[in-house]
Structures are given as C-alpha cells and as structure tokens.
Amino acid sequence: MVARTMDELVSLCKRRGFIYQSNDIYGGIKGLYDYGPMGVELKNNLKQSWWKSMIYERDDIEGLDASILTAPDVLKHSGHEDTFTDPLVDCKSCKSRWRADQLENKSCPSCKSNDLTESRPFNLMFKTAIGPVDDGSSFAYLRPETAQQIFTNFKNILTSTNKTIPFGIAQIGKSFRNEITPRNFIFRVREFEQMELEFFVEPGEDATWHKYWIDSRYNWWINQGIDKKNLEFLDVEKSELPHYSKATIDIIYTFPHGKEELEGIANRTDFDLGSHTKNQEEFDIKAKVMKNDKSTTKLAVHNLENNTWTIPFVIEPSAGVDRGFLAILNEAYKEEKIDDKNSRILLALKPHLSPIKAAVIPLKKNNEELVNHAKTIKSNLQLLGMGRVMFENSGNIGKNYRRHDEIGTPLCITVDFETLEDQTVTVRDRDTMKQQRLGPEALIKYYQKYFE
Ligand code: GAP
User: Fold this and answer.
1) Torsion angle of alpha carbons 183, 326, 78, 248, nearest 10°?
2) Quick one: which of 413, 415, 396 has its CA closest to 447?
C-alpha cells in the first residue's frame, strides 16, 4: 500500500463532505475544523465504538458528560494554571510567534532569521468571562482535558452507583488548547475531542492495570481498522512526563506527516484525587500535591474491613477523537486500478465506522414505481438500527458507485425494472465490486449479518 499524503486526505474530506475549514467564508481560523455530513457520522461511529467498549461491554465503568466551562480552582489544583505551558519565542524580524521546541536550527520558519527572543512559558488554556460583567473578576476556563471533571465528580459517581475499586469513569467531549502553532490538518488543533477513561485502582495494583490498559487500547485501535505495522509504543522518558504522571506509554501512529501520538496511557498515581480532596493531611498521599483548603469533599474510598480511607491511584487511557479519525481515514484510503483505463478511490472503512451503511438507488431517477420501491427498502433497512441508510435519487448508477466508494459505503442496493417483477434487487459490495441479486428476505438477512 502506498502511503497517503495529507493533501489527498484533505482533498477527499472537502470533496465528499467529511471536514471543512471552520469559519471558511470569513477567511477561516487556524486550528479549527468543522465536520460535515459524512464526517459527523464517521466521528459519531468512532465515539460510539469507544463508548460501547468502555461502558456497554463491561460493568466496571460508568459514563459522564460534564460541563466544559471549568472553575479556576479546579485547574489551579490540577496543576494546569502553573504548568500547562509550551515554550514560546517571538521572531524579532517578522514578528511571528513559534513553539521553541519545534524550531529547526533555532531559526524562524517564516523568514529564517536567527534573531529570536528568549523562550518563555505560554499557558495554553482559553479563558472566558462568567456572568454579565466582564471585568476579569469572574471567569472560567474552557477545559484543556476532559479528565478534571471526572475527578471532581468522583464522589458523586461513587456514591450514586455503589461502585467499589477497581472501577472507571469514562467521558467523551470537547477540549480546548490555544496551541501556538496548530498544524497537520486535524492532528493538532485548538478545539478537539477526547475520549478519556480514568480507572481507579488500589495503590500497588497500578502497574498491573497500566499494562492491562495499554494492551486493551492497542487492540481496540486494531479493531477500528488500524494496521499493526503502523502502530508502536513509546515509553515516555521521565524528563518528558507530564507533572501528574509516574509513567506514560504513548501509542504512536504513522500519520501521513510522520510518527506521532495517537493516545497516551498514563499512570497518574494519586495526584488528581490527592490534589482535589479536602483534608489532605488525613491521607498518605504519594504524589506531590499543592495544599488545598478550598475543596469541600473527601475524595477517597472507605475500606470497611479495616475501617481505613484510601485515595486510589488512577490509570488514564486518553485518546484524541480527531487524531483517531485521521488515522482511520489514512488506513482506509485506497486507490485501485479497475482496468487498463480506469481507477477508483475507495475508503475501505470497517463497516461499523462507515458513515452510510447502504445506499438504495432507483435505476431511473424520476420513475415513480422505482422511487417508491427504493424508499420502502430504505425505510425497512433504516428500522434495523445499524446506522444511516441513504436513499439516492440522482439517477446515474456509475456516479453513485464512485461517490459511495469514496465515502466508504459498504453496500449499494439498486432497484431496477426486474425488481418490480420479482422483488429482487442488485447488491454491490464496495470492496470486491461483486454484485448479487437478492429477494426481500435474503436482503434483510444479508444486511443484518453484514453489520452485526
Ligand atoms: N488527560 C490527559 C491528556 O489530555 P494529552 O496527551 O495532552 O493527555 C491526550 O492528550 C490525547 O488528546 C492525545 O493523545 C491526542 O490524541 C489528543 N490531543 C491532545 N492535544 C491535541 C490537539 N491540540 N489537537 C488534537 N488532538 C489533541
């Protein structure tokens, strides 16, 4: 398989309605993208697949959908106010700004000048005013990770669900970072989505659970259609670890622009619950935490056997939805020769991720009988609840096949004049391009089996 270029993916995304530059008609804003009709389906399917694997297929993880606006106290005690920074330099010649650690030869990428300021820390969090008076006295942050509200809800979830450790809390949602140099399409953006699990374990059992989640997350990505040969692990060096982590393993993917992080799996120790708990002095907190005299809640679990309170350790698999989307698109994109003259582009997505599960196409555009029959088949398949089924009334079968190959629709179902006589339809398979004729019952069975 030839490696895809980012330009090919960007072009397909725009052409077929997956992703557009955000605020485009006013010139766009760097680092922001909008997911179009096909993009939102694929993204939802990816998130749903993660949610199913975390919540529905097991019984030790609960879900959460917390607010994005976050109180400054939360992000003070999490360490983000002090340490969530990137090193910033200004070019004195052309006045552009850059991340110091991403400069080649310490020169300005724009004008090549070496006349740069000393690097200084730049906090990546966005702030916004809360309430009607914008005088700086009352503000909130847009969360830079979904994790923190999981920790602040720890006690709520523990008491309302009767969970005991080990157990986890999972959340999918938007995060915001004022990246100095957003780049590589949706790889590094300022507004993105994360799928994060905080899994609370007995101190001492953390290393075993860390290993468990590294394996589990690696296998999940493979089940989404990522080839093993494009994945590797990076054991993050001690000097590079984030302030909360004792050990982090990154899952690295070979993106079109190079090898970079797709997901990080961190052992966050008791740093987070220890930072946000009240009465810190009552506990033997292992991590180095800031004194907290604002929290109103004890974030610990009660061991009834010996009547002691423990702050659990946390293992955190944290994946980027947008990076996952990019990786999956990159894996699925194929260009194939059909014969000596013709080739096609197709997205060989796993069926559960395909934006459209089946397209139902009447052979002739405005033929009432064909159209009505196709609409009935669409409704019947839609009712099976496997995802979006599309009625296509544009007439040109060849063009429809090409379009649906490019958006990754596994099945195209054509309703023709034979259908009106014997109820059979033609079912075309995206990957093999093979066609077969199926009657109504066989079609339903085939469709169900395909997506189960
Ligand atoms: N709670 C831990 C945490 O947020 P992180 O390594 O900073 O850790 C986790 O982020 C994941 O979020 C990354 O592996 C990546 O997939 C995604 N991510 C982080 N920053 C991003 C950005 N600017 N644009 C797109 N995705 C990003």
Assistant:
1) -110
2) 413
Cα(319) to centroid(ligand 1), Å: 7
- Asked whether the beta carbons of 153 and 66 are under 8 A apart, the reply is yes
CA of 194 to the centre of ligand 1 (A): 7
- Per-residue model confidence as pLDDT tens digits over 296-305: 999 999 988 8
Give dist(CA 13, CA 35) in Å, integer.
9
Closest residue by CA, ligand 1 atom 24:
188
pTM over 0.85: yes
> Which two tokens mark 428?
């075309």
Kindly state if the Cβ of 196 falls inside 6 Å of ligand 1.
yes
The sheet that has 85-90: what strands, in order across it?
A: 97-99, 85-90, 120-123
62 near 168, Cβ under 8 Å? yes
Calculate how far, in angstroms, residue 320's C-alpha sits from the geometric centre of ligand 1.
Answer: 6
Whose CA is closest to 168, among 265, 73, 234?
A: 265
Residue (of 232, 224, 238, 225) closest to 258 by Cα position = 232
Q: Is the CB of 144 under 6 A from ligand 1?
A: no
SS3 404: helix
Whose CA is closest to atom 18 on ligand 1?
Answer: 320
- Per-residue pLDDT of 388-434, as tens digits, reads 999 999 878 999 999 999 999 999 999 999 999 999 999 999 999 99
